[in-house]
Here is the input.
Amino acid sequence: MGKSRKRKRRTHSVATEEEVEKVPHSLVIHRGHVGKSVVNLEFDLRRVMEPYTATNLKVSPKNILKDFVHIAGPLGVTHLLMFTQTEMATYLKVGRIPRGPTLTFKVKQYCLTKDVMSALKKPKSSGTQYKNPPLLVLNGFSANTLPMKLMTTMFQNLFPSINIQKVHLSGIKRCVLLNYDSESKTIDFRHYNIRSAPVGISRGVKKLIQTKVPNMSQLDDISDYVFRGGCGYGSESEGEEPGDSRITLPQDVPGRGNIKAQQSAIRLTELGPRMRLKLIKIEEGICTGEVLFHKYVKKTAKEIKEMKSKREEKRKSKEMRKKQQEENVKRKEREKAINKARSIEGQRKKQKMETPDDSNDTKDEVATGLSEVNDDDDDDAGWYRREVGKEPDPELFPKNQKRRKPKDNLSPGKKRRREETKTTMTRTKKSKETKSGKVRKAGKIKKFKVPHSRTKMKGKTGRLKRKSKK
Here is the structure.
């Protein structure tokens, strides 16, 4: 058994906090209702801007521009790319957060990534190439005019800057090409994959260098494979690489044969998407503010001055409303605090006024209430009249019979029994007139049993009955 070889761990360069702050971050979104193809173009552009972008960001139709501007600061977002679509065309707006400017481009033509990849014979795409930001290449841009200067600065700040002295070639695997056509005044957007291949060796040797072992079962010697162009496939002379693509590598580059100080050819494979853009408008702020450039609308100095004055008045009125709203909020808070203090003070006063003698006061109140009710219901006839709704029979409630009023010292906890007019209960002494006109006081009516038959009657009652018969 041989000695086990220890694999060397690959060390990745960790960016410092200062470098992270300098790296631009972008958000690619769409505003309003757009078609499905524009949504796919949005996802493809997010793929181009990786790794410094939100690839899986979900955009709802309810979201407005202020929502993204508010979250841009905490998340460290520096640029905002927005797709909009109208009946006329599709537009791409590129804005610098938080104060602008905003460049509006008209997307004249575009092609999605899946369409570009399907048109290639040998597409080159892997997941590792999107772990590093792409290299920006500008062609045909100049800083002579204000629109060109703003466009150049905006595109340069959209991607991370490169320090030529410290850059690692192994981290550059993609590039974004922006070509400006001065005649049509359009910008061609392209996205490529970068691959380096060694130059000056035959096709057979290239196959030997690769990790895949070739099939040499039909050959007697390795020299036959090398000199015959790799097992007879293709010609010995390979297509010549253009002279501009050949470079001498200053560093080791990933790939077999790409060694320092050796010549290699740089090959580009398109990844997509493709876009043809045309500058329409430049605004001072984020989709607002003074229009610095417009392709179709031209205004005089007087109109520009009037627009500035209107914008200034609008800004001042907005500040006044905001100040007034803040004052109203403060005033309501003060009133709320005063009302709270008053309510607390009133509760304290109420607690001080309440004493243990409150139960006697409540008793007096209940007694007075009962007396008032009894004054209203002075007799049973009145009670019957209110409850039944008609006049009672005279035999049922005699006029001279009244209910007894309750005593003043009646306690509220005990129920007062209603006095019933029955023979079983005693009545108070009342005056009664006789047939002769003399008034005599009647005594209390005592309870007695009615006899079942007259034969059993005894005593004074029996004699009274016989006298009445005579």
Observations:
- The mean pLDDT is 75.
